[in-house]
Amino acid sequence: MAFVFAMLWYDENVIKDIENKEITLARAAKKIGVDLVLLFGSQADGSNRRDSDFDIAYRSKKPLESDSDLFHILMDYVGSENLHILNLRDIKPLTLYEIMRNCKVLYAEDMLDFYNLRAYAFRRFEDEVKPLYELISNRLKKQYLS
């Protein structure tokens, strides 16, 4: 019986620690004007190794004076200095698609904004690759149907 109680106590404390970290991240992100923080790459899809870095993308309402404040906030959140941070406003459509495809939301001021951004990324991806698919299709038709 004591073992079961100890496990329940441990689980409750772990959950409280996670909730506290999430609250701390949300408050700190909001304070510096960041409205979206996403984990992507190997840490998000489960293919990470012990030495894998944390790939994190963010979006801010206005340009940040410095990424160092955000870096320290995220370093405390993930418990590692091995971070790679990208500003979602500075990346190309195909990179945005790759991030949005398998990301995990660490913080979103408004989840609707996240879903809208994800839909936008998927539409832009289609727009970017459509000419390539048409080119391949035309070549295959020419090669095999002529």
UniProtKB/TrEMBL annotation:
Domain of life: Bacteria
Occurrences of domain Polymerase beta nucleotidyltransferase (ranges): 30-110
Short name of one Pfam family: Polbeta
PANTHER family for the chain: NUCLEOTIDYLTRANSFERASE (PTHR43852:SF3)
Protein name per UniProt: Polymerase beta nucleotidyltransferase domain-containing protein
Organism in which the protein naturally occurs: Candidatus Nomurabacteria bacterium RIFCSPLOWO2_01_FULL_40_18
Classification lineage: Bacteria, Candidatus Nomuraibacteriota
